[in-house]
Specification:
- The protein is an alpha/beta fold and 651 residues long.
- It has 17 helices and eleven strands.
- Strands 3-2-1-4-5-8 form a six-stranded mixed sheet, with helices on both faces. Strands 9-10-11 form a three-stranded antiparallel sheet.
- Strand 4, helix 7 and strand 5 form a beta-alpha-beta unit.
- The longest helix is centred in the N-terminal third of the chain and has 39 residues.
- The radius of gyration is 39 Å and the shape is flat.
- It starts with a helix and ends in a 32-residue tail after the last helix.
Length: 651
Amino acid sequence: ELAHDDLDLADLKAGRNSFGGLLVSLLLHLWLMTNLAGWFLPEPAESMEPVLETKFTENLIRQEIEEAIPFELANPDERELEVREVTNAMSLGLAVVQQAPKVAAPAKQLLDEARVDLAKLPAYDVPEGLKFDDRLVVKGSTGEQLVQIESALDRVTWEIAQNLQESKVLVVWLLDGSGSLKTQREAVAKRLRRIYGELGALENTTTIPRHEKGLLSGVVMFGEKTNFIVKPTDKFDDIEAGIEKLPTDSSGIENVFTAVKQVVNAWSNYRTEQHRRIMLITITDEAGDDFGKPHLDAIAICNRYGAKAYVIGPTAPFGKRRGFVPYVAPEDGKTYQLPIDLGPEAAMAENVNLPFWFNGPQYEYLSSGFAPYALARLVSETGGVYFLTNMTTMAGLAPIGSFDDAALRTFAPDYSFGEIDDFAKDVRKHPLRVCVLNAAQMSQRFKVKGAPRLDIRVTANNFRQVATDAQKEVAESQYMLDAMLQAFPPSIEKELDREPSLRWRMAFCLNYGRLLANKTRNLEYNYMLASLKMNLAESDINTRSNHWIFHPTPDVKNSGVASKKGALLATDLLNRVVTEAPGTPWAIMATRELQSPFGIRVEERFIQPPPPPSQNKANAAPQKPRPLFVQDPKPAQPKAPPPKPPVLPKL
């Protein structure tokens, strides 16, 4: 135990000595930490917010700024020449819609195809002398405003100058040879000297780089066949004479895509050997007759050699392929409506072909605000521009006001389909689109008659037969409407929120709404006629009701509960079009349909019938006898032959 106690005492003394050293070390470290904290950790300001900043340094190559040259190509929007005022939209029109409501947010497109502003894009050229890869082609613009041809030519000048700043260029003037384009060809010839004068002035001021024969031009006319008028040259007089003396093609056929293919194929060496960009300036007033394989071949060869297609052309009719041009025949002075291919604006017609009831425009040929589909696709796929131009062939389109071009961009067709089978395959993925197209196609086969007789006069002897005949007329239309409505399964409107395209949603609402509205009117009209036959007797016709006038009314109460529900759904669908598609042809059509309510009421009037013929003779004063003289016989004159029918031109 003693030994153990001695060991504990020694440990205690050693611990005391160690504790003293530890205490001194601790005090020293505390002193150092306090002083160091005071030196390097100043108290931050109360209002300072912590900021995170990252800087990158890059060695940039300075670019010498060249002296600006005061001469430049005139902006087509600031021209000194007076140009006739036109609508600032994609339709013919007179009145401008004021304070159009805001357009709903654009729907997500099934195939997202961004529009490209070529003026803002940097110019990238492929290695000269090589063929283009299709993947390098920038999508083009399919038109924004309807302009006169002079304004379109100014824009073409601008496009040529932009391309000349980067490369030598071959410009091909590809002109429609049909008789309907004679006025536009004359306008081109008059404007040509100014176009080349501006381009030459730009080259003299070095705004456009000087090349040996930097700009060559050729002239080609197309119709049933392709005629090479002027081979590529830098002599302006040859170009001007070629356009001024273009012959007229009387075939009435416009094989525009075949011409594009033949031109690029014939002059592709100007790209491969002379390293020129090829610009095809097509001027036409129709949609072209060779859509199909020639259309696909034209796009393929343009992309192969980097040729850009520019089109100065018409707008397409809304949902129709054909339009009509009024023509006054000099032989008899009569006006004839000549059919002409102008559309459609989409791969297939999407609108049901139905007449409107009651007073108001029929809008049978309404401008769509878009280019014909095939020509627009040629421009879109080759990186060119389509200039919507006021053409003679658009005279038959309804002048109903100005469309909102900003709103129409959301409704642009999908130009990615070159084959109808590819388009149909895509449509089958969307139930609403199937309904729209099936109903539209059936409406081309089933020609629904217009509004029935809305002002009927009857007698006691025929009022039942007259009413029956009027019922038969609407019964025929009803049969066709029911066939088209079968394309819309029950409650199909619930699929609206699943459809990604605003264009297709509005086409569905317009088609389905118009079909339901027309069905309701037919049923109401039929019921009112049946009621007149049942409730009126011969004595009523002779005393109080021999003149029936049919008016629209909001009350749909005669043709059953199902008809009333259909009228309510039609109203909702059409109002949705007006709200979500303002400033568009869809809204124009929906507004016209809503102009007259869907119910029918009859106004009964009585018109005093004329006295019987026997009574007139009885009351007439007796005629005095008068002498009769024998006339000398005259030789019979031969009857004049009937006038020959006028020779109508083929457009």
